[in-house]
Design a protein that fits this description.
It is a single chain. The protein is mainly alpha-helical. Helix content is 82%, strand content 0%. It is built from 13 helices and no strands. The longest helix has 32 residues. The termini are far apart.
Length: 364
């Protein structure tokens, strides 16, 4: 595939959460989180199967769209299921700790399977895709057998249209939550852009492919370490303080990667991933504690929707700016947008209440 075709395929992936994020999030709230997880896992298998047999871009495009759809099914339902399961046992105080541990393990698995997939492609590209089909089917089977946690039911139950309407009213009527979701989407978009373009930036700095692979693998391990110790490090920390710290680290990571010496660039990149690992469970705990169970999955899917909306234009724009003005200018511009949204959220949260505490409580 040409670079233009690869970009088109990436766009198809992000189109799915944009078009389907809210409907699929409401499906989880309406009919059950476990069924949304099961369908999402099944779509992983279907997407990989299409990639396995694809011989042209015209089959790759629907495969990538279905991969994005699987993300839309799972993005809000995963956290909502976990939070509801803890709420059923009255132990939601341990949510950020448990989520941090789960994220940590998942990042280690992603690093290992990325290496394994790259190694298997030396034999045939069929191996990683075939294994992904098997893993997707196994995950769908496991999800279908989960116990659906008890949660509050409202008049919106079994009506996706009413659930989406309720979510739009909740988000639109609570400016603190609305700005926080927008800020989070911009922050994760910046982190994604740093990671996606790291290979190109490091290659320009003179690193060969094996050493670039080591740096990117190390970044995933840094995220895993941060997620694992997130609750311990922030049990007494104020959420706004950690939000500022995470913003500073991620924006600084982009600036360091874009304009610093090689050692500084790598160090800033790894530090940004480590702090992001700490902050992700905190942000999830804050948003989950601030919304009701009846619309939790749908509201959580809003963040993924906003990320996809941002990525679909930010990815080519940052690449264009970097090509014309350099990586430092590209990351400085993206970082400036994130800082403006951070200041907006801080001013908004100071003037109102979000419904959640400003500190992370220790686990029950």
């Amino acid at each position: 595939l040409s670079l233009a075709q690869i970009g088109l395929a990436e766009a198809c992936f992000h189109l799915a959460p944009i078009a389907l994020g809210l409907p699929f999030g409401s499906l989880a709230d309406t009919f059950g989180r476990k069924w949304s997880l099961a369908v999402g896992a099944l779509l992983v298998a279907v997407s990989a199967a299409l990639m396995l047999v694809a011989r042209s871009v015209w089959l790759v495009l629907p495969a990538m769209f279905l991969s994005g759809a699987s993300f839309a099914f799972r993005s809000g339902a995963q956290q909502a299921f976990l939070y509801d399961a803890l709420a059923e046992r009255e132990t939601t105080g341990g949510f950020s700790r448990l989520l941090g541990r789960l994220l940590s393990v998942s990042y280690v698995v992603i690093a290992a399977t990325t290496w394994l997939g790259a190694a298997l492609t030396g034999k045939s590209f069929a191996w990683p895709y075939a294994l992904t089909v098997g893993v997707g089917l196994a995950a769908a089977y496991l999800a279908a057998g989960l116990h659906e946690p008890a949660r509050e039911r409202t008049e919106h139950h079994r009506s996706m249209r009413r659930t989406i309407g309720a979510v739009l009213r909740i988000v639109g009527g609570r400016s603190v939550l609305e700005v926080l979701l927008g800020f989070a989407a911009a922050l994760w978009t910046l982190l994604t852009l740093i990671g996606l373009y790291a290979q190109a930036v490091l290659a320009e700095r003179g690193l060969d492919t094996p050493r670039i692979g080591l740096v990117i693998g190390a970044s995933l391990l840094c995220t895993a370490v941060g997620s694992w110790f997130a609750h311990r490090q922030t049990a007494r920390g104020a959420f706004p303080l950690w939000t500022v710290a995470a913003t500073a680290a991620i924006v600084g990571g982009g600036l360091g990667l874009g304009g610093g010496a090689l050692a500084l660039a790598v160090g800033a990149y790894l530090l940004a991933e480590f702090v992001a690992g700490i902050y992700e469970p905190l942000l999830a705990a804050r948003v989950n504690a601030d919304v009701g169970a009846a619309q939790r999955a749908t509201i959580l899917s809003v963040q993924g929707f906003l990320c996809s909306v941002t990525m679909i234009w930010a990815f080519p724009l940052v690449g264009w700016v970097a090509g014309r003005f350099g990586w430092l200018a590209a990351y400085a511009g993206a970082g400036g947008v994130v800082i403006v949204l951070l200041v907006t959220w801080l001013l908004t949260s100071t003037g109102g209440t979000s419904g959640a505490g400003t500190t992370m409580e220790p686990a029950s």
